[in-house]
């Protein structure tokens, strides 16, 4: 028997939360609810859901800010559900990492369809079995990394760091995002961990670790995995 997908609802309107809980529970989803940004972020950290339904008009912090904070580490789907209907708000939310945007009042059938689509997209992203970049290949099933068709030996942490960067090819990942994903939420300020492991990883996969072509430093921000020749 398949386990139910977990959905976190972050919305300060009691009626909306109750409507969403009833709708989602009756469609075989498991729900948790929060009425504030602080409570919602805490719940997402302690019990990471498969999908978050997020309101932008929260009492303690703007939802766009909450979205950005969540996207520093949360890889699951996020759907915005808000009374704000301007193109500016929608584009900003999507740029900040939302998977979809639905305005209030909404039709429950449409919300359920968008939830199914967003969950399917995030699940499909995890089905990739092999990543290949020029002369570098990462087999996610066997956890074997090869360079020029020769296997290279990586520690568990180096492998986790490489796969996180490679799965986000072309995207800048912030220091805190990487630290949370590799070491956990309690290590977001331990940037020295990251520098050490990036340096070790570069020595193993880069033709010239002093002039890397795969792991690019974005000064003051983080790192970007790049496979396109400049």
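Sequence proposed for the structure above (230 residues):
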């Amino acid at each position: 028997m398949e386990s139910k997908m977990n959905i976190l609802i972050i919305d300060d309107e009691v009626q909306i939360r109750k409507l969403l809980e009833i709708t989602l529970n009756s469609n075989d989803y498991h729900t948790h609810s929060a009425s504030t940004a602080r409570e919602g972020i805490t719940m997402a950290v302690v019990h990471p859901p498969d999908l978050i339904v997020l309101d932008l008009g929260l009492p303690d912090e703007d939802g766009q800010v909450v979205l950005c904070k969540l996207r520093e580490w949360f890889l699951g789907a996020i759907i915005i559900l808000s009374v704000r209907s301007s193109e500016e708000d929608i584009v900003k939310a999507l740029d900040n990492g939302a998977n979809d945007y639905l305005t209030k009042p909404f039709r429950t059938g449409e919300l359920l369809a968008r939830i199914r689509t967003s969950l399917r997209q995030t699940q499909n992203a995890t089905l990739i079995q092999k990543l290949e970049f020029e002369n570098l290949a990462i087999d996610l099933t066997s956890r074997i990394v090869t360079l020029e068709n020769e296997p290279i030996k990586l520690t568990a942490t180096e492998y986790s760091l490489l796969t996180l960067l490679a799965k986000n090819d072309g995207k800048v990942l912030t220091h805190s995002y990487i630290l949370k994903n590799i070491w956990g939420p309690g290590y977001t300020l331990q940037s020295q961990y990251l520098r050490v492991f990036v340096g070790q990883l570069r020595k193993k996969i880069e033709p010239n670790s002093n002039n890397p072509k795969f792991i690019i430093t974005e000064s003051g921000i983080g790192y970007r995995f790049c496979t396109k020749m400049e």
